[in-house]
Amino acid sequence: MSNQAANLPPQKTSGMDRFLNLIEKAGNKIPDPAILFFWALIIVWVCSAILSNVSFDLINPRTGAPLEITNLLTGDALAHFLANMVTTFTGFAPLGIVLVAMLGVGVADSSGFINTGLKKMLNFTPAKLLTPMLILVAIVSHTAADAGYVLVIPLGGIIFHAAGRHPLAGIAAAFAGVSGGFSANFIPSGIDHY
Predict the structure, then answer these.
(1) 1 in a domain, yes or no?
(2) How far is CA 88 from the centre of its chain?
(3) How many domains does the chain have?
(4) Can you give the pTM of this predicted structure?
(5) For the segment 87-100, what is each residue's pLDDT rounded down to a tens digit?
(6) Cα–Cα distances in Å, from 54 out to 42, 51, 65, 68, 76?
(7) Among candidates 172, 171, 168, which has minimal Cα distance to 155?
(8) Judgement on whether residues 161 and 78 belong to the same structural domain of the protein
């Protein structure tokens, strides 16, 4: 049996697969998002300290006073940052939905529900309709507020990987669907008003 596997010709990859693999390798070299946000925080603090001494000619149209950059590395600014950190964190509206959704996805993944559901879905969905179906689900996912960005985009990669297609293509298709359906959904959602 192993001789038969050894005699098979190497599987050829398309140009798109090679391109997506290149993007994936480059993306894997990027640090953890928490580290990126920490670096961005440090860069903003340092730039604010440097640029706070520079005067600009830009005028605030409301007050008529020149715009000034606030030094975020002063004691008062750091104390304000630390004192209001919890309020800033909890005041971010999508956070509650994201935390509950991630908790639900974690339970569903650990129980095997996601794997079973994806296998069942892939059994009755023709391969040529997989991309349109993913985009439709991504568009409609906006009815669950911002959960589409958190849930459907990674699930698009999982679905495409389970179907033997490149996961980045699934992520791109899901992102296009969620972004396109964010304010132009088929179904009325929380941000639609009279």
Answers:
(1) no
(2) 21
(3) 2
(4) 0.54
(5) 988 888 777 777 77
(6) 19, 5, 15, 8, 20
(7) 171
(8) no
